[in-house]
Design a protein that fits this description.
74% of the residues lie in helices and 0% in strands. By secondary structure, the chain is mostly helical. The radius of gyration is 22 Å and the shape is globular. 51% of the residues are buried. It comes from Bagarius yarrelli (Goonch).
Length: 440
């Protein structure tokens, strides 16, 4: 039970405690102490699933772990809550993310201080792009938590993130800083403040904040890479590409290659793609990153991941890998069953993938025609506003490069819209200047 509690804690704090063997060590300890402990299997299998680094379609060990969890639950006397946890994990493994979140939310109605249900639900809503639900899920349970309870301060970060994703930036910053006043090492609260400064184009404030708090959040080894990603985004926003590349080389790529975590991996992909759109040569870095992404080309756990892996295979001009990713996704989309991501491939995912392929070929008009009808649906692929902005930028670049005059005028409209949403954004200013130079 101590090991299981630690894993819950590590999941919430984004921090491994190596003196206890880290998360993997605790997983092993739980299995050794009681191989039939159902909630131990729920936690260990659930964390693997939510991490999206393995697919039950490709990883038979993970598929077997899901089956074992369900089988153990069927032959034991469990509480109603334990049965719900098992049900949610089984649904998540099938890709029925919304149904899994419904079960976790039902648990929270009766047990509002169940941090495992809250965190799993939070991540599920994040993958679904359900921003309002992500905020409200935490808001509903907050009154039941008291300051003396373990992990209380970390609710501030969770709630703050939901607030910022629903554009309550000032309130999000206030709540996050309340959390930091209680726990300076809360990397998720830092992450939330980083988002606020980015969405408000407060670049100098963001850089200063990240530098002043680095010593606190760098200990959150499971989140540090992502926080460095935000740091690099500020540099890209400001046009300081060398500084962004330095952060990529020294922190983001190094950490992503070591961890293999999907959050770290997609961050590395995104940074290179953004820099490439800004005109920076990153081909050799793509080549190194391909070693990390290529083994996951047919996982198809999240469309969000697929789109980022595609950035790398396209950047490397690896046509065979690109084709393998697209063909396997199309095949799964034919019979998606309960899998939300495979269903989504038909309505938005494959078109977004094809748009990236067309952009890489220089077919900018085709890129615009594919992305334009989808741009208000990008949230469906999950992730944060900051992460999905790479696709907004892709549409702008394609529209500016298109030979179609209507597309060029559309690019101007997109830039006016962007400038209104993020006033004083240096990146937007640069794009506007580029559009003017092209006589758009």
């Amino acid at each position: 039970m101590i090991a299981a509690s630690f894993r819950d804690c590590a999941y919430t704090t984004w921090r491994n405690d190596e003196t206890l063997g880290g998360i993997e060590g605790c997983m092993a300890a739980v299995q050794a102490a009681d191989p039939d402990f159902v909630m131990g299997h729920v936690i260990s299998t659930g964390l693997q699933l939510v991490g999206t680094g393995s697919s039950v379609l490709q990883d038979q060990t993970l598929a077997s772990a899901v089956r074992k969890t369900v089988d153990l639950a069927s032959c034991q006397e469990l509480t109603a809550r334990e049965k719900q946890h098992v049900k949610a994990i089984e649904l998540f493994s099938k890709g029925a993310l919304a149904k899994a979140c419904d079960v976790w939310e039902d648990i929270l109605v009766e047990h509002p201080t169940d941090m495992l249900a809250l965190k799993f639900s939070h991540d599920g809503f994040f993958y679904l792009g359900e921003q309002t639900q992500m905020r409200d899920s935490v808001a509903r349970v907050l009154p039941y938590w008291k300051p003396h309870m373990p992990l209380y301060s970390y609710l501030k970060g969770l709630y703050s993130f939901g607030l910022l994703e629903t554009r309550f930036y000032d309130q999000a910053e206030k709540i996050a800083k309340e959390g930091l006043s209680l726990t300076r090492e809360d990397g998720w609260c830092v992450h939330s403040v980083a988002h606020v400064h980015e969405m408000k184009a407060e670049i100098d404030k963001g850089l200063k904040f990240m530098a002043s708090t680095e010593k606190d959040w760098v200990v959150c080894d499971m989140l540090a890479c992502h926080n460095y990603w935000h740091w690099a985004l500020y540099h890209i926003e400001r046009g300081d590409y060398e500084a962004a590349l330095q952060v990529f080389d020294e922190q983001v790529f190094r950490r992503s290659a070591k961890s293999g975590a999907m959050l770290d991996t997609v961050d590395a992909c995104s940074l290179l793609y953004r820099l490439e759109m800004e005109g920076v040569s990153v081909k050799e870095r793509y080549r190194e990153l391909l070693k990390v992404t290529e083994p996951h080309s047919e996982d198809h756990t999240l469309l969000f991941n697929d789109l980022h892996f595609l950035m790398v295979s396209l950047g490397c001009k690896e046509t065979a890998i690109t084709q393998r990713l697209l063909d396997s996704l199309r095949e799964l989309a034919k019979e998606p069953k309960e899998n939300h991501q495979h269903q989504l491939a038909n309505t938005i995912g494959l078109s977004m993938c094809q748009a990236m392929v067309e952009y890489d070929k220089g077919n900018y008009s085709e890129t615009v025609e594919l992305l334009k009808p989808l741009r208000y649906r990008f949230t469906q692929i999950g992730g944060s506003d900051a992460q999905r902005d790479v696709f907004n930028q892709l549409l702008i670049h394609a529209a500016m490069k298109s030979q179609d005059k209507h597309h060029q005028r559309f690019a101007r409209c997109l830039l006016v819209e962007r400038d209104a949403a993020r006033m004083n954004s240096p990146l937007t200013d640069r794009l506007i200047q580029r559009a003017h130079s092209l006589h758009i």
